[in-house]
Design goal:
alpha+beta, 3-stranded antiparallel beta sheet, two-stranded antiparallel ribbon, 23% helix, 19% strand
């Protein structure tokens, strides 16, 4: 079944025509080939909603194809889950730039900024939990709590 799907792509050369909408930070920048039963998610920031309806434009069965995008899919979810998905996608996109010498420092800075602002973990950040409610008799003494390390030991 998997190879049958790959042999018959549903849509190729997929693009989103945003019409008069202002959007930014769309990920992925290039939408991959779409196969039946294998959905893809596109994330981005809506800066300004337009009056026209955005469309998916692609090639389907060798012919040009377009379809309006249901704007109900653009509703804002207040719990922040979409923001975290967007942030993870932006971190993934910037992580690919870490191999480029020209963009490496910019990519690191962007990864750290996104990680901190949206509170998502990246390969360049770490989050620590601090319990400030525990009793400490002598505040001048340091307490060491052993923890597992993912780093290899120096030998």
């Amino acid at each position: 079944l998997f190879f049958e799907r790959l042999a018959k792509p549903l849509m190729q050369d997929v693009k989103i025509d945003w019409k008069d909408w202002e959007v930014g930070d769309v990920y992925p920048k290039v939408i991959p080939v779409l196969y039946h039963g294998m959905p893809k998610m596109v994330t981005g920031k809506i800066i300004k909603r337009g009056l026209e309806t955005p469309q998916i434009v692609s090639m389907k069965n060798g012919e040009k194809y377009s379809a309006e995008i249901n704007q109900l899919n653009f509703k804002v979810i207040e719990n922040g889950s979409l923001e975290k998905i967007w942030a993870r996608n932006q971190i993934a996109m910037n992580s690919r730039l870490l191999n480029s010498t020209d963009l490496q420092e910019d990519a690191k800075r962007e990864i750290l900024n996104i990680s901190l602002e949206y509170q998502v973990l990246s390969n360049l950040s770490a989050f620590l939990a601090v319990d400030a409610t525990g009793p400490v008799a002598d505040k001048s003494k340091n307490i060491t709590v052993p923890s597992a390390s993912l780093l290899p030991e120096n030998k």
